[in-house]
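User: Second chain of the day. Same drill as before.
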Amino acid sequence: MSAARLLRLAALAALTLAGCVATPQPTASPAAADTNTPLPTQTEIVLPSATPPPTSTLPVLEWPTYIAPTLAPFPLGQLQEPTQPATYGFPAIQAPVALSPFDHFYFTFPIANAHLGLYSPSQRYGVRQEAGTNRREPHVGLDVGLDSGTPVRAAGDGTIVWASYGQTYNSPYFLDDPYGISIVIRHNFGYNGERIWTVYAHLSSVSVEVGQRVQQGELIGLTGNTGLSTGPHLHFEVRAGTNNTNFTYNPELWLAPPEGHGVLVGRVGNERNQLLLNWLTEVRSLDTGQLWTNYTYFTSFRVRSDPYYKENLVLTNLPAGRYEVAIPLYSIWWRTEVEIKPGAVTYFHFMGRDGYSFDLPAEPPLVGMPD
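Assistant: Same format as last time:
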């Protein structure tokens, strides 16, 4: 070995002994690790807790569960003629003789002593006679003729989501809205898994504000003649599923009839199961001789039949008793007798030359309101 190499080895040994050079240590494999020696613990990082924002969850009502709100115990009054002054006090009642589990009398009439004589046959749901013409356009609510300033009350418990002009366009500055001054209530109960709203239109004033919770029977505004209106009246709507005019249903199937009164529901068609649209129907009391006339309505994306009855004719507030139903077809008046029971739906199906059937529809295998 050369002298130079011996000198380098001696210098390296001296540096090692002095601690200037660290000798690499072998890395132990996981299999060779000492299992009896605990691993060092790490400090746990605790994140601050966050409270989730409150959510509003619609109660899920499975078909065919029937759930109705408790109706306010207003003092009992008497039916009054339309010409007499109205006082709020004639209560609607929860159906005591429901013929099927699919009835949904959730709401009380939003005005005092609502009487069938207050309704114009051409201003009911689904049909509207335009002045000076023979053309009828679908009407998505129920119109009740009243003097301006008549109190309007909430048909059910809920929260005010609109109380101003312009609800059609979601802008209170749109003063040309056909609804005029209107109120929309989002109710705190649903039907068939869907949210429900009621609409009160053509008002002269409101006494509530958006976000306010109201109870059934609470004063919310006064009738008027604002918007697209030919005279003072209340326009009342029931919407289910979505809050717009494409999801309306016949309010007369949702309003609990006054005590001692019932509802007539019909599906009017021909023997080929084709619905007769805008078709005259007469209903006459066999006890008093009083005559009611109505037209069948159009069913479309805006005018929707009940998912169970699939009706195109409804008459509510009929005093309990016997009635004759008459429908003209093929130059013949087809007549039958029905019995209106208090607080209940009386259903018929007219099938043209095949006559009348009173069998209730089969239970629909539906969840949610139909589109």
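The longest strand covers residues 194-206.

User: Great, on to the next one.
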